[in-house]
Design a protein that fits this description.
Layout (H helix, E strand, L loop, with lengths): L1 E6 L13 E6 L2 E7 L3 H7 L9 E3 L5 H4 L2 H9 L9 E5 L3 H11 L11 E5 L3 E5 L2 E8 L5 E8 L2 E5 L7 H6 L5 E5 L14 H11 L4 E4 L10 H6 L6 E3 L5 E3 L1
Parallel strand pairs: 3-4, 4-5, 5-6, 10-11, 11-12, 12-13
Antiparallel strand pairs: 1-2, 1-14, 2-3, 7-8, 8-9, 9-10
């Protein structure tokens, strides 16, 4: 697997830290996890056509994680050449309701014309896909949210989405080759539903992951030593992501 952070920030504009999104090449499939504003454009900069994306997994329905769902669906509707490959969107309970409301808001201009769209509302459990699996676990956020673990070829990548510490998150990252955690706030400014650097270090240590990548940084981290806080608990490799940070697993 090869994973690229398409957005390492939040909805607050900051160069190099765009709203949430990840791209993973898993075997022969192109997979996107979360789709904050501009994800489609950054995917194009990476050299990946939206026409080739097979699956989109949404962790939850806050705008900085799902706004570009509209962009994906509108682009896939456009001709020349028309998309024919099926497209599947996964997410927590409420995904179908969200899609219907978006169709109404955009006068049905995001409905597919030439391809099959599947919407799959997930509960905690495993989805078996061609050559790999994706496991969903419930996260602890201000709205219903899921974290995802992709396993392929004996390797595992886990992604938290937005959450605060919980047992399901540790289970999601257990022994993962790559654990990608949101890291929103300083230790001294903890916000409910999000993680701090020290908490990320604790989770990584409890999970026993091989490598930790932190993302979803708010601007409060300017001048703050994130790595030092993580190192109090986790001694493995740590990457502080920016847009387009890429990790091979």
């Amino acid at each position: 697997m090869r994973v690229t952070i398409l957005g390492a920030g939040t909805a607050i504009p900051r160069p190099g830290y765009s709203p949430a999104g990840l791209y993973a090449r898993v075997g022969r499939e192109h997979v996107v996890l979360d789709a904050g504003a501009g994800t489609l454009q950054r995917l194009a900069r990476l050299g990946v056509s939206f026409r080739n994306v097979d699956r989109l997994f949404l962790s939850h329905f806050h705008p900085d994680h799902c706004l570009d769902l509209v962009s994906f669906l509108f682009a896939m509707r456009l001709p020349r050449p028309a998309r024919t490959k099926p497209f599947t969107v996964y997410g927590p309970h409420g995904l179908t309701r969200l899609y219907r409301r978006l169709c109404t808001a955009f006068s049905r201009w995001i409905e597919p014309r030439s391809y099959r769209l599947r919407l799959v509302e997930l509960h905690p459990g495993v989805v078996r896909l061609p050559g790999y699996t994706v496991r969903a676990e419930s996260m602890y956020h201000s709205t219903e949210a899921l974290g995802y673990r992709i396993e392929a070829g004996g390797k595992a990548v886990a992604y938290s989405g937005d959450t605060e510490p919980c047992e399901d998150l540790v289970r999601l990252g257990q022994g993962a080759d790559l654990l990608i955690l949101e890291c929103s706030m300083r230790d001294e400014r903890r916000v409910e539903g999000h993680l701090t650097p020290s908490e990320c270090g604790q989770i990584a240590a409890e999970a026993g992951c091989r490598r930790l990548v932190l993302t979803h940084f708010y601007p409060v981290f300017r001048g703050y030593d994130i790595r030092a806080r993580v190192r109090r608990h986790f001694r493995g490799p740590v990457t502080l992501a920016r847009d387009f940070t890429t990790v091979a697993v």
